[in-house]
Design brief:
Blueprint: E1 7-12, E2 15-21, H1 25-31, H2 45-56, H3 74-84, E3 92-93, H4 94-100, H5 107-115, E4 128-129
Parallel strand pairs: 3-4
Antiparallel strand pairs: 1-2
Helix pairs in contact: 4-5
Length: about 140
């Protein structure tokens, strides 16, 4: 449990692969890509949990967690790597993120990539807003 509700984490041998806000453990496990190798070595779930707890308690601003984005498209990886560079306390628009990855006309595609962010909080899609300052399609 967290201040935001129940969080489930999954990691693989190359890093964190998923965070979901759900009370339904079975649905969470079913949603994981079987190719994620989710329980093979790598950093301990307790390391991930500890950093998330520190962040949610206001004692951590950034994460030093390995993430595994290998099951995503190249475009999705570029978007998520770009938002990981947004400093705490700052926001960007979907269009600004699109421009940052060299695709200035791809704001909607950026929004779609963020709507499917498998690792919210750690990969801070909450720092990306619609051009009018609204939340857009944020689901995490």
């Amino acid at each position: 449990p967290s201040p935001l509700g129940t969080l489930h984490l999954a990691s693989g041998k190359h890093g964190l692969v998923a965070i979901r806000f759900t009370d339904d453990t079975e649905a969470f496990l079913d949603s994981l890509d079987p190719m994620a190798n989710r329980i093979e070595g790598g950093e301990s779930i307790s390391t991930y949990r500890g950093q998330l707890q520190e962040y949610l308690a206001g004692r951590r601003l950034t994460f030093t967690l390995a993430t595994d984005l290998s099951n995503l498209t190249e475009f999705q990886r570029r978007v998520l790597k770009a938002i990981a560079e947004i400093p705490p306390g700052e926001v960007r628009s979907y269009g600004q993120v699109a421009s940052a990855i060299g695709k200035p006309r791809a704001a909607r595609a950026v929004g779609q990539a963020l709507a499917n962010n498998p690792i919210p909080i750690v990969l801070p899609c909450h720092r990306v807003l619609a051009s009018d300052g609204g939340l857009g399609g944020y689901t995490g």
